[in-house]
Design brief:
Layout (H helix, E strand, L loop, with lengths): L2 E2 H6 L10 H11 L2 E6 L11 E4 L4 H9 L4 E5 L7 H22 L3 E6 L10 H10 L5 E5 L7 E4 L2 E6 L2 E4 L18 H8 L10 E3 L1 H17 L5 E5 L4 H16 L4 E5 L1 H7 L10 H4 L9 E4 L4 H11 L4 E6 L1 H4 L5 H17 L3 E6 L9 H21 L7 E4 L1 H11 L4 E9 L2 E6 L9 E5 L8 H10 L5
Parallel strand pairs: 2-4, 2-5, 3-4, 5-12, 6-11, 6-12, 10-11, 13-15, 13-16, 14-15, 16-19
Antiparallel strand pairs: 1-9, 3-17, 7-8, 8-9, 17-18, 18-19
């Protein structure tokens, strides 16, 4: 049942009185430990800035990146788009290669399995595979889905999604009805039990409470974590970034005493665990040094309600043309090639004419009879979007990809991105990348816009910002 946001938050103890981010930043720097984020789609860097994203994880690539002095790196797996067995193989390989790279460089690291703040993803399968690849015993698995930018809070172990003045338990949202990653439980302890097929009982799942965080502080957190042993799963409550700072400060103390944890988290945790200070939203002046005469390209594949509303709003902008990709034709082997060719030709013409161009999938959602067939449909649609972008003959002034899987496939398969730098956020939860010289369009500004982020006008606002209108 949804609850009034103001009333629930007002009933909580006051937040810890001072910021602990300076302490965290100093501890991270002093330890030299690298934060390696294994990201199941490209949206996990939506809270950070000035960090690299790698599309590969070979031993040599990891040796190079572990040797770099910066504290954090993202490995873009896009494993949420893969069947479980493939997602496990990817995570197992990453774990094995990380251990080998760590031995070569002498650099210690911690692993973050970053996934969706609305609890969709291959949990626990890919996390267990990552642990197998790392070949290390962990005292505990920490579940931390808090994501302030998207209004995802956890109070009394219940994970909520903010909708206006209300907080809705996530099991009552559309995300819990996902054809592949659906679930029944909003209480994270029950959710863990559900995802482990009942092999873990809810009462056996540990919890860091808001009382621990707000009244006990880092010492209480460290004390609670000291009792987590034998790979126990522990959920972390958080209703603000200050809560997360207190938790991480206690976590670092526990780890400094010799404990080992692996994390399954949303994006907010990464910024705090890395000691990265918040940065204001970027403007066009921050990221563009010259103006191209072509239009910008927006590719939208996400089907959640927020994305559909945002697509409708952006279509009403002036100097923008929209092209619908017929999913029905994409799924028809006899018609898919012609649909790809037609959309790509139209997009190229409009971009060359200087018009911002939206390419979006038709809004009827096609699902299969089971998880695998539904995933295969999604892969076919994403592959068509990739082929459309690969067939576009005009380099856009900038590019936006709407939807996590869509943005990953476009970046790696259509643009050939092997490495990008996260510049920061254009809108809350929407990071801008500067793509590498190896990509099809070197130096392109590429904005990753998650499907489940932003209000109805967010995509239109992003286009306005990229055009240089900062008066939002």
């Amino acid at each position: 049942m949804k609850v009034n946001r103001e009333e629930l938050l007002g009933s909580l103890p006051p937040e810890w009185p001072k910021s602990l981010l300076p302490e965290i930043r100093e501890a991270v720097k002093r330890s030299g430990i690298k934060v390696v984020v294994i990201d199941d789609d490209p949206t996990g860097n939506q809270t950070v800035h000035d960090v690299p994203v790698l599309a590969g994880w070979s031993r040599d690539a990891l040796v190079r990146v572990l040797a770099e002095p910066n504290a954090t790196v993202y490995l873009l797996t896009n494993s949420r788009s893969l069947p479980l067995s493939q997602a496990q193989a990817v995570n197992r390989e990453i774990g094995t290669n990380l251990v080998a790279a760590g031995k070569v460089t002498g650099r210690d690291f911690v692993a973050v399995s970053r996934s969706d703040s609305t609890l969709r993803g291959h949990y626990p399968g890919e996390l267990l595979a990552l642990m197998e690849g790392l070949g290390q015993a962990f005292d505990g698995i920490l579940i931390i889905p808090f994501f302030e930018e998207g209004g995802r809070l956890t109070v009394d172990d219940v994970h909520y999604l903010a909708e206006g003045d209300w907080l809705v338990p996530t099991a009552e949202t559309e995300y819990a009805k996902d054809a592949v990653f659906g679930y029944r439980s909003s209480n994270l302890r029950a959710w863990v039990s559900e995802k482990h097929a009942g092999q873990i009982k809810p009462e056996d799942v540990g919890s860091i409470s808001l009382t621990d965080l707000r009244e006990g502080g880092p010492e209480a957190v460290a004390a609670t974590l000291s009792r987590i042993r034998g790979g126990q799963v522990c959920v972390v409550n958080a209703a603000s970034y200050r809560d997360l700072e207190v938790f991480v400060a206690g976590l670092l103390r526990a780890e400094a005493s010799g404990q080992h944890f692996i994390y399954r988290t949303a994006a907010s945790f990464v910024r705090v665990r890395s000691g990265i200070a918040p940065r204001g939203l970027l403007t066009a002046a921050d990221i563009f040094h010259s103006k191209k005469q072509t239009g910008g390209l927006i590719v939208a594949g996400s089907y959640v309600r927020k994305s559909t509303a945002q697509i409708e709003a952006v279509r009403s902008l002036d100097r923008l043309t929209s092209i619908e990709v017929s999913v029905e034709k994409v799924l028809d082997r006899a018609r898919v090639d012609e649909e790809i060719r037609s959309v790509a030709n139209l997009a190229s013409e409009w971009l060359a004419a200087g018009a911002d161009t939206l390419v979006y999938t038709s809004r009827k959602l096609f699902i299969g009879n089971d998880e695998d067939s539904s995933m295969q449909i999604g892969q076919k649609v994403s592959a068509a979007l990739v082929d459309i972008v690969k067939s576009v003959t005009v380099e856009p002034a900038w590019m936006v990809a709407k939807g996590g899987i869509t943005s990953s496939d476009i970046a790696t398969k259509a643009l050939g991105v092997e490495r990008a730098e996260v510049l920061g956020q254009m809108l809350p939860g929407a990071p801008a990348w500067h793509v590498g010289t190896e990509s099809r369009w070197p130096g392109l500004i590429y904005v990753v816009f998650p499907g489940n982020v932003g209000g109805p006008e967010a995509l239109a606002d992003l286009v306005r910002l990229l055009r240089g209108d900062d008066r939002l």
